[in-house]
Design goal:
heterodimer, A: about 110 residues, mainly beta, Immunoglobulin-like, 5-stranded mixed sheet, 3-stranded antiparallel sheet, elongated, B: about 140 residues, mainly alpha, 4 helices
C-alpha cells in the first residue's frame, strides 16, 4: 500500500470527526452568578455563561425577568448587567437559531439583589 | 440536509426575489422611455409585495412550526419589522389601486404614484438591513 493512499482515508476520518463535534447536543450554562446568589445593587454584576449551540442553534440571548437584555454572539463569555433593582430577579441564557427563535435549550438562575 | 434550514432558505429565496421585484419594477417604471411598460411593471410589483408579505409571514410560520413560538426580536428590530409590514401593506394597496383605477388618472398622478411606490420599496429594503443587524 502506497503511503499517499492514506491521505484520502485520513481526510475522511477527520471530516467524520468534525461532523461528530458539530452534532454535539445543545447546552447552556451560567457559571456566575450561581442560582440563589445574593448580588450587590451597587456593584457591576456580570453574567458568565457558556453555550453549545448544537445542530439547531446558532447563538444565545440573555434575559432578565423575561425581558431580552442582550444578544450573545460569543459562545463563551460574560455580559455586564444593567443596574438591577433590589429584590428577586430571574436571569436566563437561551440558545436561539439563526432566525432568533429559542430552540428550547436554556439555563436560568434566580438571584436576590440587596 | 436539515429540513428546517432548507425551509428558511427556500423562504429567503422568495423574499429576496420579492425585494428585487418591488425595487426593480419601480425603478423601471420611472426610467425615461419605459412608461409604456408600466401596467406590466405594476403586476410585477403587486406580485413582489405579495411575495414579500407571504414569505415574511412564512419565516414566523416555520419558527412556530418547529418551536411553537415566533422569533425573539426587540427594540430597533421590532421597529424595522413594523416599518417593513407597513410598507408591504401600503405598497400592495397602492399598486392594486393603480391597476384597478390608474387608467383614468392623469400622467402627473401616475408619476407621483410610482415615486411613492419606489419610496416604499426603498424604505422596506432599508428597514430590512436594520432588522437583519439589530436582531
Amino acid at each position: 500500500m502506497r503511503i499517499s493512499s492514506i491521505y484520502p482515508i485520513l481526510g475522511a476520518a477527520l471530516l467524520a470527526c468534525s461532523q461528530i463535534s458539530f452534532a454535539q447536543d445543545a447546552s447552556a450554562k451560567i457559571t456566575s452568578p450561581a442560582d440563589g446568589a445574593r448580588l450587590d445593587a451597587m456593584a457591576q454584576n456580570k453574567v458568565v455563561y457558556e453555550v453549545v449551540p448544537g445542530p439547531k442553534g446558532d447563538h444565545s440571548h440573555l434575559y432578565v425577568d423575561n425581558k431580552e437584555a442582550a444578544i450573545l454572539k460569543e459562545l463563551k463569555g460574560s455580559h455586564t448587567l444593567e443596574k438591577l433593582s433590589p429584590g428577586q430577579h430571574d436571569i436566563c441564557v437561551k440558545v436561539v437559531n439563526k432566525g432568533h427563535t429559542p430552540i428550547g435549550v436554556e439555563k436560568c438562575v434566580k438571584v436576590t439583589v440587596n | 440536509m436539515d429540513l428546517q434550514n432548507l425551509s428558511y432558505a427556500a423562504i429567503q429565496v422568495v423574499h429576496n426575489f420579492g425585494a428585487v421585484a418591488v425595487v426593480g419594477s419601480a425603478v423601471c417604471a420611472l426610467w425615461p422611455g419605459l412608461a409604456g411598460m408600466r401596467k406590466k411593471l405594476a403586476w410585477v410589483m403587486l406580485a413582489g409585495w405579495a411575495a414579500q408579505a407571504a414569505s415574511g409571514g412564512a419565516f414566523g410560520g416555520v419558527s412556530w412550526l418547529y418551536y411553537g413560538r415566533f422569533p425573539d426580536i426587540h427594540g430597533i428590530a421590532v421597529a424595522a419589522l413594523l416599518i417593513k409590514m407597513a410598507c408591504a401593506a401600503a405598497g400592495f394597496m397602492l399598486v392594486a389601486a393603480y391597476l384597478y383605477r390608474g387608467i383614468g388618472w392623469s400622467e402627473r398622478a401616475r408619476q407621483a404614484t410610482w415615486r411613492a411606490l419606489a419610496a416604499l420599496a426603498a424604505t422596506a429594503l432599508t428597514a430590512a438591513a436594520f432588522l437583519r443587524w439589530f436582531s
